[in-house]
């Protein structure tokens, strides 16, 4: 998980970052992580996959806000927002083999996808800390 998040956050030049995103998407990283949030998998794997997917959503959306003139959409976010991925997450929730950890993890991912982020202005954190 740490390596994946480093790949997403530490590559700053736009073209190499886009190349890494495309490569991760070609390797089906999103689909693989969603498969881990299946009731047949272990709890710690559910948690790690869920955290990774939630961070991918947040990082991708933050990046979109920062680089609004980007010509290429984020392929990982686009994949995560596809109907078949959402259906797979819902299938994991309603699977006949009930597993609380898988249900909670899938719901966390769905809630993250439904989040709306408001752009923050600089100094916002400082104002909150001083109050």
From TrEMBL:
<protein>
    <submittedName>
        <fullName>Serine/threonine-protein phosphatase 6 regulatory subunit 3-like isoform X2</fullName>
    </submittedName>
</protein>
<comment type="similarity">
    <text>Belongs to the SAPS family.</text>
</comment>
<dbReference type="GO" id="GO:0019888">
    <property type="term" value="F:protein phosphatase regulator activity"/>
</dbReference>
<dbReference type="InterPro" id="IPR007587">
    <property type="entry name" value="SAPS"/>
</dbReference>
<dbReference type="GO" id="GO:0019903">
    <property type="term" value="F:protein phosphatase binding"/>
</dbReference>
<dbReference type="Pfam" id="PF04499">
    <property type="entry name" value="SAPS"/>
</dbReference>
<dbReference type="GO" id="GO:0005829">
    <property type="term" value="C:cytosol"/>
</dbReference>
<dbReference type="GO" id="GO:0005634">
    <property type="term" value="C:nucleus"/>
</dbReference>
């Amino acid at each position: 998980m740490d390596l994946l998040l480093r790949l997403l956050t530490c590559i700053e030049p736009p073209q190499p970052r886009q190349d890494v995103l495309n490569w991760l998407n070609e390797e089906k990283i999103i689909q693989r992580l969603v498969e881990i949030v299946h009731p047949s998998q272990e709890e710690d794997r559910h948690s790690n996959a869920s955290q990774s997917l939630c961070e991918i959503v947040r990082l991708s959306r933050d990046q979109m806000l920062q680089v609004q003139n980007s010509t290429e959409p984020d392929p990982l976010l686009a994949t995560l927002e596809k109907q078949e991925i959402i259906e797979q997450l819902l299938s994991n929730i309603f699977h006949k083999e009930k597993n609380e950890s898988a249900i909670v993890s899938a719901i966390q991912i769905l809630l993250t996808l439904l989040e709306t982020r408001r752009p923050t202005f600089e100094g916002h954190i400082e104002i909150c800390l001083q109050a």
